[in-house]
């Protein structure tokens, strides 16, 4: 038995308003004249947060276009642009949702690795550490702030650059930054965390490490989406810690059926991670009966619409593509259904599930 020896985030600061410590945090990381690059979620263009970014010298803000989830071509373009303009940079600071944080991780790595980020989609393919990188979430749920991956859509696959060089050197967890996120988006991203917990806690890979974090994250999600009658600052505080703990839980276990199926959907239709997971999880009563029941309650209570009939009218080839992408995610299925998962989740069975989405 070989135990996973995983790399974690270097430094963590948590608290309302801690974003204002960013200047001080970055100071020792500044090298010669190399700038800090702030990759800012385009949602914040001309918003007060943009003005609070502690620019010094030749630092730059680059607006991250997250209309689509990050692509390897976009990562390569950003890294190339920075190399041409500055040679090197002191660091990449990603401020935004999971998409912007993943972009920041990937661009940091590509500042010091040759070729295309598509060459490194997989496990432990990244050869050299990236430049210094910080993650600052403005949405809570993905756990991208703590994970050792950055999910990218490449020419042939949707897969992260999983490596010990991928986790952030620093994360800044300031729940004020998630205030006022649109209700639907906040729910979809929050449910990503809820689903991480259910998949981790009911999986065959579970151990006490994952259970401890997963149970806490689940409790926080329930407080926010089941118990609270209206959104307040406590909800932002709790959901930010739920995201962190949920991410820590899957670091030592794995996700499951919802993620495996949702990756297939997203590969073919471009469905985004949070909403895609909700669309799939809604139909998984056979695999996660208690979780799905509670999920449906949260959907109703929070007055959220879950899109239906996405796969209506797709061709056999298109169903096959989704099935292939999904079945390729072996560890997720093994975690969810055990070593004999291939006998349980046949192509026919998975096709029926996709047809219900
Ligand atoms: P997102 O980053 O894709 O952002 C969704 C939308 O919300 C965007 O339009 C963005 O501009 C906007 N937004 C961000 N912050 C906002 C705020 N405070 N107020 C209003 N709008 C705001 O959403 P997400 O759900 O956080 O992230 C999903 C991404 O994370 C996917 O690309 C997925 O692949 C990735 N992901 C990564 C990991 C990992 O471990 N690396 C895990 C799960 C998901
Ligand atoms: Zn997820």
Structure commentary:
The strands form two sheets. The protein has a six-stranded parallel beta sheet with strand order 1-9-6-4-2-3, with helices on one face. The protein has a three-stranded mixed beta sheet with strand order 5-8-7, covered by helices on one side. It folds into two domains: 168 residues, Rossmann fold (3-Layer(aba) Sandwich); 173 residues, Dehydroquinate synthase-like - alpha domain (Dehydroquinate synthase-like, alpha domain, Up-down Bundle), CATH 1.20.1090. The longest helix is centred in the middle third of the chain and has 20 residues. It is globular. The protein has 357 residues and is an alpha/beta fold. Bound molecules: nicotinamide-adenine-dinucleotide and zinc ion. The site of zinc ion has 6 residues, from helix 5 and helix 9.
């Amino acid at each position: 038995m070989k135990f996973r020896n995983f790399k974690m985030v270097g430094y963590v600061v948590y608290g309302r308003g801690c974003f204002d410590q960013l200047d001080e945090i970055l100071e020792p990381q500044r090298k010669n004249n190399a700038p800090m690059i702030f990759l800012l979620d385009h949602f914040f263009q001309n918003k007060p947060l943009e003005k609070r970014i502690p620019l010094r010298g030749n630092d730059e803000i680059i607006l991250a276009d997250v209309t689509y989830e990050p692509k390897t071509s976009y990562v390569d373009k950003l890294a190339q642009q920075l190399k041409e303009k500055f040679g090197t940079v002191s660091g990449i600071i990603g401020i935004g949702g999971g998409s912007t944080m993943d972009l920041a991780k990937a661009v940091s790595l590509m500042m010091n690795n040759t070729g295309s980020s598509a060459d490194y989609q997989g496990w432990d393919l990244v050869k050299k550490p990236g430049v210094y990188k910080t993650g600052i979430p403005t949405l809570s749920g993905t756990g991208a702030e703590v994970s050792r991956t950055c999910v990218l859509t490449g020419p042939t696959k949707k897969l992260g650059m999983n490596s010990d060089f991928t986790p952030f050197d620093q994360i800044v967890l300031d729940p004020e930054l998630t205030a006022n996120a649109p209700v639907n988006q906040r729910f979809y991203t929050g449910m990503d965390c809820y689903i991480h917990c259910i998949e981790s806690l009911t999986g065959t890979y579970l151990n006490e490490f994952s259970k401890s974090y997963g149970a806490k994250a689940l409790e926080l999600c329930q407080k926010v989406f089941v118990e609270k009658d209206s959104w307040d600052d406590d909800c932002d505080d709790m959901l930010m810690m739920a995201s962190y703990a949920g991410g820590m839980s899957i670091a030592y276990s794995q996700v499951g059926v919802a993620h495996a199926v949702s990756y297939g959907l997203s590969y073919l239709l471009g469905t985004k991670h949070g909403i895609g997971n909700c669309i799939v999880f809604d139909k998984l009563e056979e695999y996660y009966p208690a979780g799905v029941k509670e999920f449906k309650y949260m959907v109703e209570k929070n007055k959220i619409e879950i899109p239906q009939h996405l796969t209506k009218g797709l061709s056999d080839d298109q169903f096959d593509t989704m099935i292939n992408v999904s079945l390729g995610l072996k560890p997720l299925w093994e975690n969810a259904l055990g070593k004999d998962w291939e006998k349980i989740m046949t192509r026919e069975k998975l096709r029926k599930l996709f047809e219900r989405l």
